[in-house]
Amino acid sequence: MNEFLMDAHMHFDLYKDKIEVLHYIEAVKSYTIAMTNLPDIYNRYEKLVGRYKYTQIAIGYHPELVKDFPNQIELFKKLSVKSRYIGEVGLDGSTNDKRICLDQERIFSEILEFLTGKNKVLSVHSRHASKDVLKHLDGFAGTVIMHWYSGRIQDLEEAIDRGYYFSINPQMLNSKSGANIISKIPVQRILLESDAPFIPSLKSQYSIDFNDIIYEYFSNMYNVTKKQVEHRVKANFEEIVKTKDSI
Ligand SMILES: [Zn+2]
């Protein structure tokens, strides 16, 4: 049995039975930051999630949704005052369409400009865009968690230098590049995430069992007990939430 359970990046709203997922998280006492991918979605679920102690809902504007929903930045700004947690935000370089890239950049930089210095915790998407994400984040005042980092090593090193955190998911443990990235992240910056339901094992049903898999991995990597890893991760998480008294 794990003493400390967490998930710094998951999408409860993408499950069919959302209430069941929230109840489960509450029952297992897992500290959870639930992403939303558009301000509209945050608006829809904010009150519902507010009833639960262990789940904090983040307001997001997913870069891959900018193309179809380009006009929610004012709503984002208006609603973001309600939440300390922000995500999923960032850039996604999977597209070759220059116009889409520019739209993503415009929205991400507006978000950062608006939120800087406001004591926010961001969960940042940087797939195929680590260099640009780092460029935009330069000078941003707030807590940054790089979610499922898969970018260039030089950008990873820059992110580490800047004091960013990294949420690690079990999928990363299975690839050579993921393992290489993980090996470079200081233990004080590690958090756990699932990105559920986007990893195959959590596609149909949410579970917190992945925590143990990651604890086991780090226990072998650092040659320490799983308990020691749990204590370290718990301390890291407390660093992130410490100015928030409700968790
Ligand atoms: Zn996500």
Automatic annotation (TrEMBL):
It holds the Pfam family TatD_DNase. A divalent metal cation 1 binds at residues 9, 11, 88, 195. InterPro entries: DNase_TatD-rel_CS (IPR018228), Metal_Hydrolase (IPR032466), TatD-like (IPR001130). Keywords: Hydrolase, Metal-binding. The keyword Metal-binding applies. One of its GO terms (molecular function) is hydrolase activity, acting on ester bonds. A divalent metal cation 2 binds at residues 125, 147. PANTHER family: D-AMINOACYL-TRNA DEACYLASE. This is TatD family deoxyribonuclease. It comes from Lachnoanaerobaculum gingivalis.
